[in-house]
């Protein structure tokens, strides 16, 4: 079985020839000059309409550059409360299970990186109510997140940067959504951290590895790639939810709509590699299940996603302002009608 999981954005021709690709759409300059067929390995970076066929769901091979455009959107209070509750629970769930919608428990089997270890200790103290005498939760969170952000500037590689961003997400969730932290006291710092997270999410996407190691098993490669994708998406969703709670409106950008999304969200909860392989055996291959975030939410609204997961429900609420209970979905059999 192939383990060539890729986060590459350059076209396949340029990558094979080890040449720089300008990622122009529909054909890069090099392929156009040589009369070659230009194909991008990450076809999901497309914001097209969803059609009735699986091929159309995948989208064309065009990669469109992100637009510096932001569109104001609002959600009703029930949706905002749901989103705030989901993000408020992230630190508590992580302290108990070492898992969230964007951190997989097998991702750090070799040992927790320092930023993840630090934020886990803070989450445990918070959950157990065992803060040291004289320590204020806000001060502890601020010190921890400040130190983690400092580490992002000195990250030696992409994996260290990924761990720092994941830890910052958890710190920010506790900082801005915890009722024990004064909103007046933390608002200025929360705003700054929010801006940092959005910037770091773009940095993650820009620096994502071109090709994952062939030594990784299909399971480990998928967990790693999916963790990267989910971390980037969660950064933007968190920023949007913070704005919705604080200002009653959020911002939607074409860049976020174009982020890649794996339809097979149920695989995230497979308890082990064998279960993952068994569950994925009857599904469409990864290349056929990668869509853009915009396409995924469109499929959800159209009732074409089978057995959507809680993460899918979070994405739907954040992007479309719609509860998962409001949309139809067929039972789990496959991922397309």
TrEMBL record:
GO molecular function: DNA binding; DNA-binding transcription factor activity, RNA polymerase II-specific; zinc ion binding
CDD domains: GAL4
Keyword line: DNA-binding, Metal-binding, Nucleus, Transcription, Transcription regulation, Zinc
Record keyword Transcription regulation present: yes
SMART domains the UniProt entry points to: GAL4
Cross-referenced SUPFAM superfamilies: Zn2/Cys6 DNA-binding domain (SSF57701)
Domain Zn(2)-C6 fungal-type: residue ranges: 10-40
Protein name: Zn(2)-C6 fungal-type domain-containing protein
The organism's taxonomic lineage, starting at the top: Eukaryota, Fungi, Dikarya, Ascomycota, Pezizomycotina
């Amino acid at each position: 079985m192939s383990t060539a999981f890729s986060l590459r954005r350059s076209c396949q021709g340029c990558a094979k020839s080890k040449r720089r690709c300008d990622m122009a759409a529909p054909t890069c300059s090099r392929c156009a000059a040589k009369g070659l067929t230009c194909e991008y390995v990450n076809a999901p970076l497309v914001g097209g309409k969803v059609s009735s066929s699986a091929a159309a769901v995948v989208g064309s091979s065009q990669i469109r550059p992100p637009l510096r455009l932001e569109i104001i959107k609002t959600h009703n209070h029930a949706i905002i409360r749901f989103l705030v509750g989901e993000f408020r629970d992230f630190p508590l769930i992580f302290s108990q299970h070492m898992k969230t919608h964007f951190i997989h428990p097998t991702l750090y089997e070799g040992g927790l990186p320092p930023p993840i270890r630090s934020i886990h200790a803070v989450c445990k103290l918070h959950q157990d109510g065992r803060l040291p005498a004289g320590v204020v939760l806000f001060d502890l969170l601020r010190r921890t997140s400040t130190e983690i952000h400092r580490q992002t500037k000195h990250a030696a590689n992409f994996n260290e940067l990924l761990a720092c961003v994941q830890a910052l997400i958890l710190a920010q969730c506790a900082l801005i959504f915890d009722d024990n932290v004064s909103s007046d006291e933390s608002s200025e710092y929360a705003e700054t951290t929010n801006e940092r997270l959005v910037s770091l999410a773009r940095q993650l996407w820009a620096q994502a590895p071109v090709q994952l190691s062939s030594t990784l098993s299909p399971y480990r490669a998928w967990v790693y790639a999916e963790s990267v994708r989910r971390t980037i998406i969660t950064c933007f969703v968190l920023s949007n939810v913070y704005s919705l709670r604080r200002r009653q409106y959020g911002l939607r950008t074409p860049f976020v709509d174009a982020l890649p999304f794996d339809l097979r969200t149920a695989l995230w909860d497979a308890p082990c590699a064998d279960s993952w392989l068994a569950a994925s055996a009857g599904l469409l291959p990864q290349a056929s299940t990668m869509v853009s975030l915009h396409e995924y939410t469109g499929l959800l609204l159209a009732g074409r996603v089978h057995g959507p997961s809680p993460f899918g429900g979070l994405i739907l609420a954040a992007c479309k302002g719609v509860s998962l209970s409001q949309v139809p979905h067929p039972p789990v059999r496959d991922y397309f009608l």
